[in-house]
Amino acid sequence: MPAPIRLRELIRTIRTARTQAEEREMIQKECAAIRSSFREEDNTYRCRNVAKLLYMHMLGYPAHFGQLECLKLIASQKFTDKRIGYLGAMLLLDERQDVHLLMTNCIKNDLNHSTQYVQGLALCTLGCMGSSEMCRDLAGEVEKLLKTSNSYLRKKAALCAVHVIRKVPELMEMFLPATKNLLSEKNHGVLHTSVVLLTEMCERSPDMLSHFRKLVPQLVRILKNLIMSGYSPEHDVSGISDPFLQVRILRLLRILGRSDDDSSEAMNDILAQVATNTETSKNVGNAILYETVLTIMDIKSESGLRVLAINILGRFLLNNDKNIRYVALTSLLKTVQTDHNAVQRHRSTIVDCLKDLDVSIKRRAMELSFALVNGNNIRGMMKELLYFLDSCDPEFKADCASGVFLAAEKYAPSKRWHIDTIMRVLTTAGSYVRDDSVPNLIQLITNSVEMHAYTVQRLYKALLDDISQQPLVQVSSWCIGEYGDLLVSGQCEEEEPIQVTEDEVLDVLEGLLVSNLSTPVTRGYSLTAIMKLSTRFSSVNRIKKVVSIYGSSIDVELQQRAVEYNAMFKKYDHMRPALLERMPIMEKTSSNGPTEIVQTNGETEPSALESKHPPPVTQPTNQANDLLDLLGGNDVVPVIQTNLPTKPASAGGELLDLLGDLSLTGGPAPAPASSVPAPQPAFLLDGLSSQNLFNDITAAGIPSMTAYNKNGLKIEFTFERANPNPNIAVITIHASNTTEADMTEFVFQAAVPKTFQLQLLSPSSNVVPALNQGTVTQVIRVLNPQKQQLRMRIKLTYTHKGSAVQDLAEVNNFPPQSWQ
Q1: What is d(CA 602, CA 759) in angstroms, rounded to the nearest whole number?
Q2: For 583, which DSSP code?
Q3: Which spans in 258-339 are helix H?
Q4: What does the alpha-carbon distance between residue 814 and residue 705 come to, in Å, rounded to a whole number?
Q5: pLDDT tens-digit profile of 594-616?
Q6: Under a CB-based contact definition with an 8 Å cutoff, are residues 123 and 157 in contact?
Q7: Cα 201 from Cα 194, distance rounded (Å)
Q8: Greatest CA span in the chain, whole angstroms?
Q9: Exposed e or buried b per residue across 239-274, where buried means at least 16 C-beta atoms within 10 angstroms of its C-beta
Q10: pLDDT tens digit string along 384-397?
Q11: Mind listing the pLDDT tens digit for each residue in 43-62?
């Protein structure tokens, strides 16, 4: 049989291939020749064939048929064969193939070989692909080589020990005696691998961390020698002595000094020396400085040292390298809460990064700028951020607008400034703001009584200039409907009043109704505004005519509004002025959490939420009796529900029809999720305000569960206990949506057997965002005095892609900890 071609010739031949098909044909032809040679047990060219096979493997072609040949080469006595065999084993074998276990004995023999290079090959292979079984069998040999005086073997044995510890952590103590003398080694390779080994042991075991803290002075001494040592051509990289070892030592010091005063104190001086003596003109020095900064920030360092670290990051912001600037911004963002004042000194540099061409740097600079906003710099920072909002790419506008809203709400120096700022956002990026921005701004305007005339005038002017920003148009329509009389009368004192007639205002609102730019929601705002003006303007006949036109609108929502408003003009005209009077001052609703974190100047302080009892829900007596009859008698325990979105009466009847005849216990019907009026049994949660309840909630280690997962909608339950009453389980539902379209008008309702009492709090939203971009949460309180197994029937209604969806499900697999 002719001698196979050499590896160099194969590479040259493959590179001449002009197409992928031609290359595949060459590879297949050569693989066939290699297989034939393997079948004939050709020992002469086995090494050459395996080398070619490894090259094909690197090109992405299958080479698994050469695994056993690698083992044969490893068993050979020739070093060249062993070298290719071990290389093939590292590339072609892993833990998933049982073939690798056949190597164990060969590796053991080679670890005890008389030649250091053969021992090195065995250590490299074990450290690369050794399985847990191999590591257990060979850990003793590795530990012996770790104690040898040969620095070539010690550095390889240290890295192999790292792999053994990762695979079998319980073998860690075996290597503890061998680590005693590792740091006294002069060879930098051994020092480097020793630090890697110590780092791995400290990260995996708190006991090892405590044990190795006594090595801090020795590590400090090694680092000091590296800094102070003269030029050494063997270790010099861009004028710095062994930067790789310096970085590794700094990382180990960071782990050892974390949460330990003595260790941190011992390394403060050397960290200051590294920070001041390292050359910053080359990237190598910047890498060491970055690790130094991370170490200073992570240990219990002195305040002056922390300021020095932040100043280093400030210098990074001036670097021409984009990567260094990005790293600096990311690090400052992590430290801004703990060292706010020190970061504030670099505010102008950070704001300049908003003008960077790199989008990732702009995003980090934007996030850091919002983190730096406080009551002292709010005006200047908002000016810069609003300028950024005006000129930034569309992908930044939504996050920037949200950040401006939050900062303005928290630190606004005056109500006029607050309103002006939010209006500026709406006129600049109105199409990108969050859905809750409109009601939040309406609430702000309503509560700023003295600013009503100024606000409605500003919004009217904005409406004349641009009607494409829908949130702006909606807020403007609402304000004109509420305060249109102030606009026409020209009572504005903050700026020169404009002269507007009633007909001009109505012309603008009617224009919104017919504009192609207006969404259905905006048209609803406009029609309602026109209706409200019927009690503020004298042009009632014109308003009647406009409203009657939309009684036959193709938009069902608009049609329903128009029909109801027409009825108010005809049948209930005597009630119209009272129904359309100005909205009262709105109270800001608080979230369902126990505390709200308020951040000021980098410090966090919890402020208790103001909890208000929800207003009692009243219904006519005859309607209540009808509901009770539907449920099968007056002995049904009702569900007490707070602040649910209002639904038509028919929807409540449907729920009772569906749930009222379902008995989860075989006894009386379950309690529906609807508000049934008194007389009713006192609910034991009534005496608890929402603040007290949630301040006394404790996580009870109860596992969460998936209650519903269908059509892309997933409902998860998480559980907590209320401390004052262990019979009360607090269930939080998390609704998520994996489809590509939002689920709107989402309503979750529940029913339980009569032995329980159930209370639903208001949901966080009625829209479940698409593609898991957010969740809707709602809290359920369940009183279970008899400690019976919890059962629940749930009803879900929502609109998806224009279609109404309704589904029922029964939940019986509650974890025992939730009801026992």
Answers
A1: 38
A2: P
A3: 261-277, 283-298, 303-316, 322-335
A4: 7
A5: 333 344 444 333 333 333 334 44
A6: yes
A7: 11
A8: 111
A9: ebbbbebbbbbbbbbbbbbeebeebbebbbebbbbb
A10: 999 998 888 888 88
A11: 788 888 899 999 999 989 98
